[in-house]
């Protein structure tokens, strides 16, 4: 039999599907064909494989080679199949050990000189191979650190095709070739911004801590220069560190985005797209290769939209479904890609286009219709999904860093950690771990449901139409976060009152 088999991985969104790469050698005129629904870049692998094998002194058989990528119904794209195709083709003539080839997955792009070039998405691809119980994976040297983040699989990093061939029993010399460079890692700020840098704004800082304690969405309204962006950028620092699964998810999304991943970052991600960003930039997409957008990159962390009133209404409304489901699904002809979207939404907006509406000592030059149009970008359904609305005002008296009343990131993080531990203990017998995720039915009718006398102000707000039933449940979730921060085991009227204030802001 002249058929050789190996493995590779096709990525659809964040999910990887193991692909069987079969190569068949037949006694016909020399030819090289790839079948199994490849895209154009994958079809070009024929020439890359030919030249790479020739330049590594690995002669392909001078007969007809047919490579099948199975399952054929799954779309395949990109150059990450190059190494697997080359290895399978070489094994058809007995140049490589077929048994060794068959138990190994191969990932990477081939240069014309035989070098293995790095490809995006190595981390989710190796994760998919490990789930399929493939115990050995060959990757480019530049992707070594990323691939080794996955446990339970042996990672073999190769610089060129000759190394891969020797791994499978071929006797070939090592060519003198430079290693393909790795993708440059994005610059990171070694310093973590501290809450103590925020001057004044005690109410806003407390609202931020409540939002962190329960994982709640937050809207900050105020004139320019009052510290809305400063507060938002300090939210990831007071959130609990990511666990192993969440850190792997974040790293996988970064890998799909083309970033270099060398370690698991335990700090929740922070994404702040510009107000001119399109819906596609926010949601993600692409015609053939689907890349994650800002929503997916913010998963397990914070999505911050500054100048929310300047974003288009369509862009803001695109957030509604991910906020409810925790996922973002992108439909394309032939496939559907799903990314996680478990993020904390933080919005910041001015009260009007000029930013001076309702500001003491300032003159607003905006017409009433301009103000309504500006604030109307934040639709009712979107605001209904916001748990906390905080009005941030200008500071009258400056203070210096180090004042005794300053709230530091370390102290706030400890309060948040304690509150989340208390919530997790209360929710032990449920599928939820944070207050923001708890079902409304459980909040209203479960074992921890507040007494009628405690929820009376909330019932009154619902009856007069001040809040919807969804808003009712969100107020209860915020109230539990306030109670957890205070160390209380049951809800009290003060918790409900404070949560109502945080929900309605100064509009109440």
What do these coordinates show?
By secondary structure, the protein is α/β, with parallel strands linked by helices. A hairpin with a 5-residue loop joins strand 6 and strand 7 (116-117). The longest helix is centred in the C-terminal third of the chain and has 18 residues, at 409-426. The strands form 6 sheets. A 5-stranded parallel β-sheet has the order 11-14-17-10-18. A 4-stranded mixed β-sheet has the order 1-2-4-3. A 3-stranded parallel β-sheet has the order 5-8-9, sandwiched between helices. The chain has 22 helices and 18 strands. It has helices at residues 40-43, 45-55, 82-91, 98-102, 122-131, 144-147, 161-167, 202-214, 228-233, 235-238, 244-256, 279-283, 294-297, 313-317, 320-325, 368-375, 380-383, 409-426, 440-445, 456-463, 469-486, 493-504; strands at 3-12, 15-26, 31-35, 64-70, 105-106, 109-110, 116-117, 136-140, 154-158, 218-221, 270-271, 284-285, 291-292, 302-305, 327-332, 335-340, 344-349, 388-391. It has 3 domains: 3-167, 2-Layer Sandwich (Ribosomal Protein S5, domain 2); 195-394 and 405-411, P-loop containing nucleotide triphosphate hydrolases (Rossmann fold, 3-Layer(aba) Sandwich); 438-508. It starts with a strand and ends with a helix. The radius of gyration is 28 Å and the shape is elongated. The model has no long low-confidence stretch (mean pLDDT 90).
